[in-house]
UniProtKB/TrEMBL annotation:
Record protein name field: 8-oxo-dGTP diphosphatase
Enzyme Commission number(s) of this protein: 3.6.1.55
Catalytic activity: 8-oxo-GTP + H2O = 8-oxo-GMP + diphosphate + H(+); 8-oxo-dGTP + H2O = 8-oxo-dGMP + diphosphate + H(+)
Keyword Magnesium tagged: yes
Top-level taxon of origin: Bacteria
Length: 138
C-alpha cells in the first residue's frame, strides 16, 4: 500500500483496543483536522526519540484517558494522504485500565461489524486482516 512521495513519512502509533468479544474501538476525527468526520483507530504521532509503544500509551492517555497496559505489535502500513505521508504502526491491545472518554471532543464507538462510515482510507484495507485476528475460525 506504499505510494510514492517526496515527503519523509511521519511515524504514527495506532492502537486497536479489542474487547474479549472482538469489538474494537474506533474514533471519529474532530472538526478542524484533515478528514474531519472520518472514523479511524485512535493514535497519534511519535515524538522524536520516543518509543512507538510509549507514544501509543501517551496518546491514549491524552485522547481517551485510558492507560494501555500491553499491546502486540501487529503490522506497519505506509499511506500517502494529500496532507501527509504516514507510517502507521498498529498494536492490538487487549489490556487497559479505565473506560474511554472523549477528552478531545471526538466521538468514539465500539464496533463489531465496522458499521460506521466513512472510514479513513488507510484503515480500510486493514479490516479484512483484522477480521482474521478477531475471528480466526472464519
Amino acid at each position: 500500500m506504499t505510494e510514492t512521495s517526496n515527503q519523509a513519512p511521519v511515524d504514527v502509533a495506532v492502537g486497536i483496543l479489542m474487547r474479549p468479544d472482538g469489538d474494537v474501538l474506533l474514533g471519529q476525527r474532530p472538526d478542524g483536522k484533515p478528514y474531519a468526520g472520518y472514523w479511524e483507530f485512535p493514535g497519534g504521532k511519535v515524538e522524536a526519540g520516543e518509543d512507538i509503544f510509549a507514544a501509543l500509551q501517551r496518546e491514549f492517555m491524552e485522547e481517551l484517558g485510558v492507560q494501555v497496559v500491553s499491546g502486540d505489535a501487529w503490522c506497519c502500513v505506509e499511506h500517502v494522504y494529500e496532507h501527509a505521508h504516514v507510517r502507521l504502526y498498529f498494536y492490538i491491545c487487549r489490556e487497559w485500565l479505565g473506560e474511554p472518554q472523549s477528552l478531545e471532543g471526538q466521538a468514539f464507538a465500539w464496533q463489531g461489524a465496522f458499521g460506521v462510515s466513512p472510514l479513513l482510507p488507510a484503515t480500510i484495507p486493514l479490516l479484512a486482516w483484522l477480521d482474521r485476528v478477531r475471528y480466526p475460525e472464519r
